[in-house]
Amino acid sequence: MTRERHYIPESRQREKPKSKYFAIGHSMKRVEDTRLLTGSGTYADDVSLPNMAHAAVLRSPHAHARIVSIDKSRAEALPGVLCVMTGAEAAEVTGPCADFSSPPTTQHCIAVDKVRHVGETVAAVVAESRYIAEDACELIEVEYDPLPAVVDLEEAVTSTGDAVLHPDRGDTNVAHHRVIDFGTVDEDFAAADLVIERRLRWPRSGGTPIETVGATAHYDRGTGKFTIHANTSMYNYVGWLIAVSLKVEPHRLNIVPTDAGGSFGSKLFCHKVCTLAGTLARATGRPVKYLEDRIDNMTSGDAHGSDRLYDAQLALKRDGTMLSMRLKVIDDYGAYFQYGVGQHGNAMAQVTGPYTINSVQVDLTAVFTNKCQQGAYRGFGSEVGNFVIERLVDAACEELDLDPIEMRRQNLIEQDQFPYIMPTGNMYDSGNYQAVLDEALGMIDIDGWRKKQVDARAEGRYIGIGISTCQERSVFSATEFWMWNPNETPGFTLSSSPESVAINIDPTGKAFITLNAPFWGNSPETMAVQVLAEKLEMDPADISVGYADSDKGFNSGGPGGSRFTVMIAGAVSGAADVIREKMLRVASHMLEADPSDLEFRAGSIGVQGVPGKEKTLAEVALHAHYFRLDLPEDHDLTSGIDAAYVYDHPVTTMPSEDRTDLGIFYPIVGHMVHIPVVEVDVETGKVDFLDYVAVHDCGTMVNPMTLAGHVRGGTVNGIGSALYEHFHYDENGQLQNALLSDYLHPTLMETPVDIRVGHVETPSPFTEYGIKGGGEGGRMGAPPAIATAVEDALKPLGIKVDSLPLTPKVLRGMIREAEQHPLSASDKELATH
Amino acid sequence: MTTPRTVELVVNGESRAGEAEPRMLLSDFLREQLGLTGTHVGCEHGVCGACTVLVNGEAARSCLMLAVQAKGTEVRTIEGLGGVDDMHPLQEAFWEKHGLQCGFCTPGMLMTAVELLESTPNPSLDDIREAISSNLCRCTGYQTIVEAVQAAAERMQGEGQ
Q1: Inter-chain contact A521–B103, Cβ cutoff 8 Å?
Q2: Closest Cα partner for A306 from A261, A267, A268, A346?
Q3: Do the chains contact at B103 and A260, CB–CB below 8 Å?
Q4: Could you report the per-residue pLDDT of B27-80, keeping only the tens digit for each?
Q5: For A754, nearest residue in chain B (alpha carbons)
Q6: What is the CATH number for B134?
Q7: Which chain B residues have a beta carbon less than 8 Å from that of A777?
Q8: Is the CB of B143 less than 8 angstroms away from the CB of A754?
Q9: Do A210 and B78 touch (CB under 8 A)?
Q10: Helices A404-411 and A382-400, axial angle in degrees (round to 10)
C-alpha cells in the first residue's frame, strides 16, 4: 500500500530526457585527467607558501585519560622549533571545532583537560621542517591520569561516572536515544504469519583514501584575515564555521580548495585540521602546513564509518509478502558527534529498501566510546540498512523455503507505483526494479552456476551465488542531519542544500565554468562540461573548469550523498539558460532575426530552416564583449556573456513536528542488483570471486564510462567492508591496525578480474535530463550480496553470516566450529536443497 | 647526524643537486628540495606504492629510501614521463580507459607500469596483475588500470614493429 499522506511538490525539471543527445551519454575522456596523469595536480601537500613552517602533533597513547600536566620545555628548546602549543593554550584563542550535534558536543583541535581516544592531539609543534617538528613531539612530556576506557558499544549504554566521555551532556554515554514508529507497525506485526529475527553486526571501517587530510594556513597580520588551503569540502556551505572556531568574522577567512586524493566521504568537512593549521599560523606569524600522517588519519581523522549492532525483525505473510520491520540499533559513534546521527537520518531515506513494506519502527541508540569519531563513508549509514534488510530477506527465504530471486520479485515496488512514498515519508522518484533484475539475470547464467556449484561440492569445493536488490538514494537534503534531534533541542534546522556555478564566455566564444565545491576524485569537471556542451551545442574541448574559493563562492553543498552530478547539472543548466538567452539576443541583432526563430546548432546560432544563415558562437561572443554600441538601447543588454546560478535541491519538504513523517529528503533514488559468484577456500578462509555482475539504474547517464568507474570502485570498497576492513580496537581502546599494512584495503588480488557492469536508465522526473546520482551504489550493494554468496557457499556446513567482515580468520573460525559440529545427513540435505 | 649532505643525482635526464639530512626520505627530497610534487606519499611505510619512482630503472618506494642512498643514481619520476602534448602511451591509455579517478595513486601506478613494460614488453594478463598488485588504488577497483596497461603494451608493441 502506497502511503499518500505527504504532499509532493511539483517538478522543477526544465530539461526533459531526450532520445538523442549532443554531449550527454557519451563516454568522453575526463577533463580532469591530463593534469593528474602528468603529476601536475595540486593536492593538499603540494601547496607551498613563502616562509612556510611545518606542524606535527603529539598523539594520545591513552584511550581515555585526564591530562595532569604537560612539560614542553625540552621541545621548545630544540633548534628549529617555533612553537609548541597545548590544548589549554589553543583554547585561549580558538574555540571548539564545528559540530552539528544537538545538544552540542565539545571537541577542540587540541584536547583540553582530557583525551577521549587514542591518537587524539595532545599538543602541536611548529618547526622549520616536519622532521624537526616530529623530533620535538618526542620531547614533550605529558602526565596522564587514566580513566576507564569504554570500548564495547553495549557496555557504553550503561556506563556512568569516570567512564562518561562528556559529563556536560549528562552522566551517560548514550549520546542519543529515540524511537519512532513510521506507520502502523503494531497492526502489521499482528497481521503477520511469522517474524524473522536476526542480530546483525556491521563493522567499523572507513574511507581511508590514499591521501590524508592537510591544510596550509596563513594569517595576514596586516588585515587580520586567514587563508587556508585544504582538501576540505562544504567550504562554500558551512566553511564559515571554521572562522567561528578561529574567532574571526567569516569574511576574514578564505578557504581555498585543493585537489583531493580520494575522499569516499571522509573529507566531507575536515574542520579540525583547518582549525588547527589556522591556530598555529596565527600563533607563529608564519604560514603553517599540517598534513596528517597515516597514523593521524587512521586514529584521529574523524571519519570512521558506521559501527552498528542491530536486533532486526521482519514481519511477513507465509507467501513471502513483507509487511513491516522493527529495527533496534546501537551505533558506536566514538568520542565525538560531529554530524549528530545524520547517518541515521540518511538511512531513513531507504530503510525499507525497494520493497512494498508498509511500516517500520526504528529504535535508535547512539553511544560515545573511546574511539575516533564517525564521519562519512560512501553510503553514510544507508549502506548498513541495505545489509540489514537483505540479510532479513535471505533469512526469510531460508525459513519459508522460498527462492531468493522470486521472493524479491514478489515484493519489489512496481513501475506504476512511482512516485512512491515509503513509510518514513521519503519519496522514491521513479524506478523499474524488475527491469534491473531482468538485466542482471540476463548477464549471468545462474542455472549454469548452480550446476557448477553441485559439481564443485562433490569435489569438496565451496562455490556460492549471492544476490542483492538494493536502493541507492541520491541528492541529500539538509534535513537528514537534524531530523532525529530531540524536539526540545532541535538544533540548527536548515533546509537549504544548493549547488552553484558561474559561467563566463570569453570573447572568442570559449567557456569557463567555476564550480563552488572541490575535486574529490569524482568527475565534476567532466560532468559540467558535458552538460554545458549539451546546452549550447559546443565542442567540449572549448570548455574549461576551475574552482571558486570561499571568498568568491556561492552557497554550495558540494559532493556527498551522490548529489554532485545531479546538482551541477541543475546549476549549469540554469546558468546556461541565461547565457543562451543573451547569446540569442545578440545573435538576433546580428542576424536581423527574431530570437524565437533562432537555434543553437553545433558551434553556431542560426535561423531555423535557413541553412547558412548563422553566426558562430565566437562571432556572437566577440560582438557581445566589444561592440556594445552596435547593439540596441537596452539597459539589460550589458557587455559580455556571464551568468551565475544557484540551483536548490530539486524536491524536498520538511519533516512533521512529531517526526513520524520525515518529509521528502532523499528522493532521487536509484536501484541496483549485484550478483557475485564466490568460492570459499575452506582450508584458508579466503574468498575468491569467480564472477561478478552489477547492474545499476542511475537514471540518465551523463558518462557511462565514469559511472561504471564509480560502480566498480564502489564495489571494491564494498568488498573491503565485507571481507577485510575493520578498525580493531582492543579492550583498552588501542587501535590495533592504524597502518595500511594492518588495515587491509583490497589489492588487485582480492578483487574480481572483471566486474561486469550493466545499466538500466529510468530517468528522474525531477532532475535536469532525468539524471540520478551514482557515486555510492557499489559500496551499498556489494556487502549484502557477498554475505549471501558466502553463506550460500558454506550451506553444507550450516554456516550463517550475521556479521562482517568475513576475513579469512573469521571464516576459518566459523568453518572450524562447523566441522566440530557437523550437520546430520538429513540436515545437510535440507540445507543444500 | 643531522648535518645536511649534498646529493647529486640525475632526475628525468637532468643533473640535479640538493641538500639533504642523512635521514631525509627520497620522497621528501624529490618533493621539497627538487620541487617534483608529482610523486605522492600515501602511507610512509611502503605499503601503498603511491610514491613509486624508478631508481636506475627499477621501481622503488621513495618513502622507504633515503635521499643520500640515491646519490649518483638515475631517478625517473612522473614529471619525466610526458606532458599534456607528448603523453607516454601509458598516460594516454590510462586516460582512454579511465584508469584513474582521484589521481593520487596514478604516478606510482604509471611508474610501476613503466618498469613492467620496459622489462616485459609483451606482458600476459597475469604479469600485469602481478605488477599492479603491489600498489593500492582506492578509487577504480583496478580493472581499468589493468586494461590501460594492456592497451599501452599493445600500442607500444605496434609502434615498435
Answers
A1: yes
A2: A346
A3: no
A4: 999 999 999 999 999 999 999 999 999 999 999 999 999 999 999 999 999 999
A5: B143
A6: 1.10.150.120
A7: none
A8: yes
A9: no
A10: 120
Task: Using CB atoms, pick whichever of A207, A709, A740 lies closest to residue B136.
Answer: A740
* Interchain CB distance below 8 Å, B23 and A41: no
Verify that B70 and B111 share a domain, yes or no.
Answer: no
Give yes or no: residues B62 and B98 share one domain: no
Q: What is the CATH number of the domain that holds B16?
A: 3.10.20.30
Q: In this structure, are B17 and B73 located in the same domain?
A: yes
A506 vs A747: CA distance, rounded Å: 45
What's the confidence (pLDDT) of residue A3? 46
B10/B57 same-domain check: yes
Could you tell me the CA-to-CA distances from A379 to A307, A311, A340, A705 in Å, in that order?
13, 21, 16, 21
CA atoms of A297 and A212, how far apart (whole Å):
6
CB contacts, 8 Å: B41 with chain A:
45
Nearest to A709 among B82, B101, B146 (CB): B101
Q: Cβ–Cβ of A39/B96 closer than 8 Å? A: no
ipTM passes above 0.90: yes
Q: What is the pLDDT of residues A531-546, one digit of tens each?
A: 999 999 999 999 999 9
**Which alpha helices (DSSP H) does A140-222 contain, by range?**
153-158, 185-190
Which of A35, A294, A713 has its CB closest to that of B101?
A: A713
* Per-residue pLDDT tens over the stretch A473-499: 999 999 999 999 999 999 999 999 999
Domain ranges, residue B132: 89-160
Q: DSSP letters along A268-322, please? A: S--HHHHHHHHHHHHHHTS-EEEE--HHHHHHHSS-B---EEEEEEEEE-TTS-E
Give yes or no: residues B97 and B76 share one domain: no
Q: How far is A613 from chain B (nearest CA, A)?
A: 36
Q: Model's pTM, two decimal places?
A: 0.97
Most A-contacting residue of B11, B12, B104 (CB-CB within 10 A), to test interface: B104
Give the gap in angstroms from C-alpha B49 to the nearest C-alpha of chain A. Answer: 10
- pLDDT tens readout for residues B141-151: 999 999 999 99
Q: Say if the Cβ atoms of A712 and B143 lie within 8 Å.
A: yes
Q: Which of A81, A688, A748, A786 to substitute to test the interface with B, most B CBs within 10 Å? A: A748
Asked whether residue B106 falls in the same domain as residue B39, the answer is: no
Question: Which pLDDT value is given to residue A2?
Answer: 42
Q: Do B71 and B99 have their domain in common?
A: no
Q: Indicate the residue of B43, B87, B141 with minimum beta-carbon distance to A294.
A: B43
Write out residues in chain A with pLDDT < 50, as ranges. 1-3
Looking at the structure, do residues B76 and B25 belong to the same domain, yes or no? yes
Residue A729 carries which side chain, given as an amino acid letter?
A: Y
Domains identified in chain B, total number: 2
**Residues of chain B neighbouring A263 (CB-CB closer than 8 A):** 102
What distance in Å separates residue B149's CA from the closest CA in chain A? Answer: 14
Work out the average pLDDT over B84-103.
Answer: 98
Other beta carbons within 10 angstroms of residue B10's beta carbon come to: 15
Last residue of a domain, one of B80, B105, B132: B80
Nearest to A210 among B45, B83, B138 (CB): B138
State how far the Cα of A500 lies from the Cα of A514, in Å rounded to an integer.
9
Helix boundaries (H) for A73-209: 73-77, 87-93, 130-139, 153-158, 185-190
CATH number of A498-647: 3.30.365.10
Q: Are A578 and A546 in contact (CB under 8 A)?
A: no
For chain A, the structural domain boundaries read 498-647
Do the Cβ atoms of B101 and A749 come within 8 Å? no
* Residue the block writes with cell 550460500: A792
Residues in chain B closer than 8 A to A260 (CB atoms): 102
Which of B80, B109, B143 lies at the terminal end of a domain, its last residue?
B80
**Are A283 and A126 contacting, i.e. CB atoms less than 8 angstroms apart?**
yes
